[in-house]
Amino acid sequence: MTTDLKVLASKLSEVFSGKVVALEERLDELTLVVKATDLVEVFTRLRDDAGLRFEQLVDLCGVDYSAYGSDISEEGKYLQDEEVAVAYPRRFAVVYHLLSVAHNARLRVRIFAEDDGFPVLDSVTEIWSCANWYEREAFDLYGIVFIGHPDLRRLLTDYGFVGNPFRKDFPLSGHVEMRYDPVQQRVVYQPVTVEPREVTPRIVREETFGSN
Predict the structure, then answer these.
(1) Would 22 be classed as within a structural domain?
(2) How far is Cα 179 from Cα 113, in angstroms, rounded to an integer?
């Protein structure tokens, strides 16, 4: 397996010379990182090059790296490790999992959106049609916009849902709640009525708990 990954890594470095931001082998898996501007060109070549032939997109998912590799200071602020900050320079990324049936190989590709405030990437639906619902899911849960997608709309949450629930800054209780109003005889939205609270399991409470 390691030998096969070395061969694949060498081939990727040769084919995408000058476009490889990072190429990492870890836990018998290979991860390629390229710039967002090279997305369509790189994926088209990964699919069509006879030496690569990644015919199938197995999955893609959004990632929010805003607090990745961080510790919380006494002031409640995230302190990110310097090496992590270099490896993950942007907040949002999309990770693509590719399969080459012809060469019995797998590859992970990570691409960061350039704008943390409004993450945008090109759609790969023209390259792999199965990306349609995957990209809709990443749009719904992370707010990542895919340019060129034929029908980019929410997939898992309700049409009136506010925010993107997989973002790190999204509250666990959400922003609004939905219920049926018997008086109006329709579904209505209202501010969340559940107060956030922290429940500490008894096994980790103070030793004196319940002693009095």
Answers:
(1) yes
(2) 36
